[in-house]
Amino acid sequence: MSTGHVPGTATAMGALGRAAATAAVLAAAALAPSPAAAVPSPSASPAPSAPAASPSPSPEACTAGTGPYQRELEGHLGRTADGTQDSADCAAIRTFQRAQRIRPADGYAGLVTFRTMVAVAARANPNAAGGCPVRPHRVTCVDLERQILWVQRDRTVVFPPVPVRTGRDDEETRTGWHEVYWRSEDHVSTLYDDAPMPYAQFFDEGQALHGRPGSLYAHGGSAGCVNLTVPDARRLWDLLTEGDAVYVWGAKPGTEG
Questions:
Q1: Tens of pLDDT, residues 195-233
Q2: Per residue, what are the HEC states of 8-59?
Q3: How far is Cα 80 from Cα 254, in angstroms, rounded to an integer?
Q4: Are strands 207-211 and 226-228 parallel, antiparallel or unpaired?
Q5: In the Cβ-directed half-sphere of 68, how many Cα atoms lie within 13 Å?
Q6: Helix (H, G, I), strand (E, B) or coil at 148
Q7: 200 CB-near residues (< 8 Å, 6+ apart)
Q8: Which neighbouring-strand residues pair with 150?
């Protein structure tokens, strides 16, 4: 029998060897452990955190001292009416001033704040004492004692109480019934150094309802006119007309009446 080379045998054996080697590599790869997850470098900086919220600022301290109308303001605001200012009284008065747009709102119980308080206190029923006669037509009521003005028709208040400044001693605002007889929107006084009298509504021999620029309470009183703040005088101007009734009664504190 011949022992010569069989054609194709070596080639087949080589292919089998290569297949076995490839299988071995694949098996080894399957058994190898998975690579560990990446661990951040110890030197890496952490992500910045959100900044902490800043604390709310504390309320501004109220340091005004005791005012001349301390007891009255304390009573109106439900505080102990002992006539002595403390920090809680000061804060309550300041809150009232801010609500009424009084400047400065510093917690001091001064004249402007007191006069505003009187008007605010009267708003629920300004004519409770019956000082202003009730009529079916509009009546502008000027209470000299409380230094307030309002307008009513029958028993309905159509212009709520506002603070006013009336005539000083010896130049008092004249009491009784009057009537608006002339109106001058941009009036300037011909008697008192061209003093501005905006929204002037004259009711008795030169005495008028009118606005007063600047401080309403300077000099202790007017020369007989009924002074209002300019915004209040403008609103009253828009309401009244010639022929409207004005009634004045009482006595301004500090005058003989």
A1: 999 999 999 999 999 999 998 988 889 999 999 999 999
A2: CHHHHHHHHHHHHHHHHHHHHHHHCCCCCCCCCCCCCCCCCCCCCCCCCCCC
A3: 28
A4: parallel
A5: 6
A6: strand
A7: 183, 184, 185, 187, 208, 209, 210
A8: 141
